[in-house]
Amino acid sequence: MPIYEYECKACGHRMEKLQKISADPLKSCPACQQDDLERLVSAAGFRLAGGGWYETDFKTGSKKNLAADGQAAGSAKSDTSSTSTNKGAAA
């Protein structure tokens, strides 16, 4: 869900609100109760929720280096396959 930024044209109060994309923009200012609240155009703000965004998030100990271990294992496999290919080409 995106985080929208609002500003009241009557009193200048600024706020952020977490809303669904399909939700209607807010109109009433919580500070002065006027219907002069306007959604601002600003940098996109959003929250990533749920699991599986980053492999190393919230891991401890040896589990933190899974991405680095995978790269090392992948490079070892490619070195082995290129060595066996070279031996086959020489024979």
TrEMBL record:
InterPro entries, A to Z: Regulatory_FmdB_Zinc_ribbon
Feature: compositional bias, Polar residues: 77-91
Domain Putative regulatory protein FmdB zinc ribbon: 1-42
Segments for region (Disordered): 69-91
Pfam families: Zn_ribbon_8
Protein name per its UniProtKB record: FmdB family transcriptional regulator
Species annotation: Vreelandella aquamarina
